[in-house]
Amino acid sequence: MQTRSIISYKRHRFPPEIIAHAVWLYVRFNLSLREVEEMLLERGIDVSYETVRRWTSKFGPQIARNLRRRQARPGDVWHLDEVVVKIAGRSFWLWRAVDQDGVTLDEILQTRRDKRAAKRLLVRLIKRYSVVPKRIVTDKLRSYNAAKRDVAPGLDHWSHKGLNNRAENSHLPFRKREKTMQGFRSPGGLQRFISVHSATRNCFSVPARRRNAQTIRYHRMEAIDAWKTASGIA
Questions:
Q1: Is residue 149 located within the same domain as residue 100?
Q2: What tens digit of pLDDT does each residue of 21-80 get?
């Protein structure tokens, strides 16, 4: 396990615990910035929603990097899919990869839905995890097979729309957040947010093997401890 990077909260008026809690509320739950502001005010913490936004922008990526360092190795079956996103009237494609357990492996926002974009996702995944999976599962988009032939010709590839529900379902939490946030202002802002959002969701999502009430509570307690450690307040 890699050592986490140290997060400095110097020159901030509020204690690190409050800052980390505000960021957690915003990226963990389907809340708007104003709703986080209201929840903090109920606890006697007078912070503007703009301050919460700045905290998330500054500390969220650092916390996400620390969470990813704690993440277990991915499964050996990767589900790849892409979904269209509108930003300022322009269409972009959010390419996402998840493993057979639903853990998000990577997300890239790209302007195209073609072989080059599919190849970029596949190369980035293999480079990040230093492993070629046993199998990839995709929909019928031919760009995936073309990219696979260039990157890993011997890789087993299942291409069928009905087989790729795992990847398609992984878009749902993002769509909920997109609606709450009323869209994104820039491609860079979207890429930064989904990086934090997916790392946090990976940490708190309960695996299928831990679905009874007691183990769910234990998992949530472990996830909260992981968040505190990653944010430097443990």
A1: yes
A2: 999 999 999 999 999 999 999 999 999 999 999 999 999 999 999 999 988 889 999 999
Instruction: Answer yes or no: do 150 and 108 share one domain.
Output: yes
Cα–Cα distance, 233 to 200 (Å, whole number): 16
CB 161 within 8 A of CB 139: yes
- Tokens read off for 62: 């650092």
**26 in any annotated domain:** yes
Which region holds residue 145: left if phi is over 0, alpha if psi is between -120 and 50, else beta? alpha
pTM over 0.85: yes
Q: The domain containing residue 210 runs over which residues?
A: 16-70+195-230
Residues 95 and 163 in one domain: yes
